[in-house]
Amino acid sequence: MEKEETLRIDNYCFVCGKENPKGLKAKFISSNGKAKAEMILYKEYQGYSGIIHGGIIAALLDEACAYAGISLGYYTVTAEIKIRYRKTLKVGEKIIIEAFAEQIKSKLIQAKAQIKDSKDTIIAEAEGKLIIKEKIEKS
Ligand SMILES: CCCCCCCC(=O)SCCNC(=O)CCNC(=O)[C@H](O)C(C)(C)COP(=O)(O)OP(=O)(O)OC[C@H]1O[C@@H](n2cnc3c(N)ncnc32)[C@H](O)[C@@H]1OP(=O)(O)O
């Protein structure tokens, strides 16, 4: 049987990679199944004029879910993610991205994430199903 490829982090993740010059460079902090990041998205990430592209919002929510899963000690891949876009996000607004994850089966982590603006208004929410690929070895 073919051996499964291991997941590697090489700092080039489009959302969080410090070395990806074209990435979003989001800085997540995470522990105990929770993840959080704050950032501002500029014009480079808009769709319609002045409004951040929904695909970028989805990527941030997905990443937040993954970080929440990582903080439980697992590398995962996203099997499913459902996004609810509640308000448009304006270019240049500060946002807070938060996620919460829990392991509900041996290979399945369920995660919820949301993005709020600085007035605490929910911009978008997500529910994700993450499949555990491997346990993170502590170095
Ligand atoms: C720091 C960097 C962070 C980066 C974060 C990036 C996040 C991402 O973008 S990940 C990339 C995008 N996602 C992917 O590429 C995933 C591609 N899809 C796949 O690899 C597969 O379809 C995969 C692994 C999701 C499911 O594979 P499949 O062969 O169907 O599942 P399998 O391995 O047999 O099953 C595993 C378990 O998961 C369950 N499962 C699979 N899919 C689902 C689902 N949609 N809902 C619920 N459970 C599911 C199965 O039922 C099974 O459970 P059990 O062991 O209890 O029977």
Automatic annotation (TrEMBL):
<keyword id="KW-0809">Transit peptide</keyword>
<dbReference type="GO" id="GO:0005737">
    <property type="term" value="C:cytoplasm"/>
</dbReference>
<dbReference type="Pfam" id="PF03061">
    <property type="entry name" value="4HBT"/>
</dbReference>
<keyword id="KW-0276">Fatty acid metabolism</keyword>
<keyword id="KW-0966">Cell projection</keyword>
<keyword id="KW-0472">Membrane</keyword>
<dbReference type="InterPro" id="IPR029069">
    <property type="entry name" value="HotDog_dom_sf"/>
</dbReference>
<dbReference type="GO" id="GO:0006631">
    <property type="term" value="P:fatty acid metabolic process"/>
</dbReference>
<keyword id="KW-0378">Hydrolase</keyword>
<keyword id="KW-1003">Cell membrane</keyword>
<dbReference type="InterPro" id="IPR052365">
    <property type="entry name" value="THEM4/THEM5_acyl-CoA_thioest"/>
</dbReference>
<keyword id="KW-0053">Apoptosis</keyword>
<dbReference type="GO" id="GO:0016020">
    <property type="term" value="C:membrane"/>
</dbReference>
<comment type="similarity">
    <text>Belongs to the THEM4/THEM5 thioesterase family.</text>
</comment>
<dbReference type="InterPro" id="IPR006683">
    <property type="entry name" value="Thioestr_dom"/>
</dbReference>
<keyword id="KW-0963">Cytoplasm</keyword>
<dbReference type="InterPro" id="IPR003736">
    <property type="entry name" value="PAAI_dom"/>
</dbReference>
<dbReference type="GO" id="GO:0016289">
    <property type="term" value="F:acyl-CoA hydrolase activity"/>
</dbReference>
<protein>
    <recommendedName>
        <fullName>Acyl-coenzyme A thioesterase THEM4</fullName>
        <ecNumber>3.1.2.2</ecNumber>
    </recommendedName>
</protein>
<keyword id="KW-0443">Lipid metabolism</keyword>
<feature type="domain" description="Thioesterase">
    <location>
        <begin position="50"/>
        <end position="122"/>
    </location>
</feature>
